[in-house]
Amino acid sequence: MATDYTYAVARIRSKELSLLSGHDIDSLLSLPDYKSCLRALSDKGWNFPDNSDISHVLSIQTEELWELMDELVKDDNSFDIFRIRNDYHNLKVAVKAVTRSVSPESMLLKHSVYSPQQIVGALENRDYSQLPDILQEPAKEAMASLLQTADGQLCDIIIDRAALEHIYRLGMESDNDFIRRYAQLTVGCADIKTAVRSAKTSKSGEFIKKALCHCDCLNVDALAAAAVKGIDEICDCLTGTMFTSAVPYLKISVSAFEKWADNYLNSLMQEQKWDPFTIGPLAAYILGKEKEITAVRLILSGKLNGLSDSVIKERLRDMYV
């Protein structure tokens, strides 16, 4: 029997009204300094103690987001696709911390599928059986690679690819079209950026194939072969795929491509506003809230570091509302 999300979607519709709009973000950006931005956020309903630093301000918003989702969708793993990124971040942190004999605590992320402490403990004990099954192989491979080669980049590639494979699998297992398309876009964009970076740094075909993650929206073998040749060949490889419209942006820069990808995702999210019955609107709200948090982080960090409004604005993306 399909889950009824009608009540949850109704709650989300009311919560969307409190999200920061593009106009709100522009107004925030126009303020003169960090403290005035905090006052404006407080007026918009953001709750945080006085003299909060950026991480505290934003962590409260993240806490509230996941508390809401846990309230609306109980005992459900439908949102694992959005949390699992934190598990692989924590795995990466744990591998590097253990091999360097430093504490990982300050770098671990909450709101993951698995316990960060479980991941750290398993690696400290070199007992991979303590890890969830899905994390055991990438943990072994990344740990062995880092110990043998001291190559942090290779360690990252191993774990990043495992993360993308996991996201893709969760997406394809979902019966929601928006979540499936999110997985395709996430993995496809990551593969394209990897291919471009590899082309610019003259990586070998073997290296590129190891870094790319399979997805049905791209021919990764053809993409790897194209990356060995150059950017133009990568662009040719994308013609006829779901990324055809991204090619002109990719020819400009990776940053322009990332903006295309973000705006493309935003267009998919907008479609969920007309769906009152499925989990799609909840997934779109999660991503919309994350976009909001990212935008506020950019503005607050920029104000603290004396960046011009024009420089900050270049990094901002379209908002969900």
TrEMBL record:
<dbReference type="InterPro" id="IPR036079">
    <property type="entry name" value="ATPase_csu/dsu_sf"/>
</dbReference>
<comment type="similarity">
    <text>Belongs to the V-ATPase V0D/AC39 subunit family.</text>
</comment>
<dbReference type="InterPro" id="IPR050873">
    <property type="entry name" value="V-ATPase_V0D/AC39_subunit"/>
</dbReference>
<dbReference type="InterPro" id="IPR002843">
    <property type="entry name" value="ATPase_V0-cplx_csu/dsu"/>
</dbReference>
<dbReference type="InterPro" id="IPR035067">
    <property type="entry name" value="V-type_ATPase_csu/dsu"/>
</dbReference>
<dbReference type="InterPro" id="IPR044911">
    <property type="entry name" value="V-type_ATPase_csu/dsu_dom_3"/>
</dbReference>
<keyword id="KW-0813">Transport</keyword>
<keyword id="KW-0406">Ion transport</keyword>
<protein>
    <submittedName>
        <fullName>V-type ATPase subunit</fullName>
    </submittedName>
</protein>
<dbReference type="Pfam" id="PF01992">
    <property type="entry name" value="vATP-synt_AC39"/>
</dbReference>
<dbReference type="GO" id="GO:0046961">
    <property type="term" value="F:proton-transporting ATPase activity, rotational mechanism"/>
</dbReference>
